[in-house]
C-alpha cells in the first residue's frame, strides 16, 4: 500500500514537472494566458534555425508583455532526430519545432511534394511558392496530424558531401553509401541515380561519417558548416538538388489552449521572422563555403545538374503519379 502511494506521489511530481507552463484548458482572455514553451531543433546553436528561434522568442515575449516565454533547446537536446521531435509535438511534450520538411511528410503526406529534386529554380521562386497559396495550403494540411504550421523558415538548397571522390555527374557517385533523411522521396531519387542511400536520424550522422559507416550525406551549407562536417568529409558538390524549407510548427494541443489574439501574434511573428531568417541564411552562404575551402574542404561548383536530373527521371515519373503532374507543374510554373 505504502509503495503504491509512494509511486503515485512520484508520478504526480514527475507529471507536474513535465507538464510545463500554461493551463490545460483554453484560456478565456489574453490577459490570463501565461505559458513557457519549449522550442527545439536538431541543429547547433549557431545554425540559422536557432538564430531565427532567438528572434522569435524575443519578439513573442515583447508582444505578449512577458506572458509567453519560449525556451530554446537546439542541438537535439530533446530528441535525436526530427521525426522523434514531431511525435513529441503530437503528444504535446514539446511545443514548437523548426526543421526540414524531410520527416514531416511521414505525418502529413502532401508536404513531401516540396522534397522533389530540382523543383525550385532559385530563392525568389521558393519565396513565391512558400508564401503563396500552395505553401499556405501545405501548412494548413498539417492540422489533420495535430500539428499547426506557422510559416516556412529555411534550411536551404541541399548539396552532396562525401569522403571518396569528387562528384560532378551521377557516375561519380555510383554506389556511394549516403545518409538521407527519413523521407521516401529522397530515398527513391538517390537510389534511381545509382547511389546507395540509407535513412538515418540526424543525431547519428556525424559519428557514422567519422566511423565510415557511410561515405556521405547531403545537406545545405548552413548544416555542413555549423556541424563541421568538413572534419569528417573531403568533398562538397554544389548539387543544389533539393530545396529544404524549414516549417516552424506548433503542437495542436498547445495551440488549442491559446487565445485567438495570441495565435495571431504567433502567426504574424513567425512570418516576419521567416523573412529575417531566410535572408540571414542566404547572405551567409558564400562566406561559409570560402571558410570551409580554406580548411581544406574540396568544393566542386561545376556540377552537371542536367545529368542528375536525367538520372533521376524514372523517379520523377513516380512522383508525378503520386503527387499529380498538375500539382508539380503548379509549383514549377510559379513565376
Ligand atoms: O533540418 O536531417 C537533416 O538532414 C536536416 O536537413 C537537418 O537536420 C536540419
Automatic annotation (TrEMBL):
CDD domains: PBP2_TRAP_SBP_like_5. The keyword Signal applies. Pfam families: DctP. Keywords: Signal. InterPro entries: DctP_fam, TRAP_DctP, TRAP_DctP_sf. It comes from the Bacteria. The keyword Lipid metabolism does not apply. This is TRAP transporter substrate-binding protein. It comes from Anaeroselena agilis. The lineage of its organism: Bacteria, Bacillati, Bacillota, Negativicutes, Acetonemataceae.
